[in-house]
Amino acid sequence: MGTRALVLFAHGARAASWATPFERLRDLTAARLPQVPVSLAFLELMEPRLPAEVAQLASGGVDDITVVPVFLGQGGHLLRDLPLLVAQLKIDHPGVAIKVVGAVGEDPAVLDAMTAYCVASLT
Fold it and tell me: Gene3D superfamilies annotated for this entry (predicted)?
């Protein structure tokens, strides 16, 4: 049986503080999945980038990676950039299964939580 990992994939920004909520999300997710490596990777402007993170996981024996785009929707980065990155990663790491799920912001439960937050802001 292979070793699975979860990579939260975010855009990245110039301000280091921008990563703080994503780091908290990574830590909260890791606490719920103690048997699964959970990491955070970025498209640009921050490290680690997705290719470096996948390479590190693969060199550590991980052979099944799920990438969770921590984006609100399926914009150009997820429609164009991420598929190209993943296609190259599959070439670079042929023994690693890489799956990408939908953008976190498009999940109905996430939308419900965000809606509740917005509604509660009026109280």
Answer: 3.40.50.1400
| Residue 11: C-alpha distances to residues 14, 44, 66 (Å) | 11, 6, 17
- Cα 123 to Cα 114: distance, rounded to the nearest angstrom: 15
Cis bond before residue 51 (omega within 30° of 0): no
The parent domain of residue 93 ranges over: 3-120
CATH number at residue 59: 3.40.50.1400
Check the CA dihedral 54-57-58-64 and report its sign: negative
pTM of the model: 0.92
* DSSP H or E segment with residue 30: helix 20-32
Tens of pLDDT along 8-48?
999 988 998 999 999 999 999 999 999 999 999 999 999 99
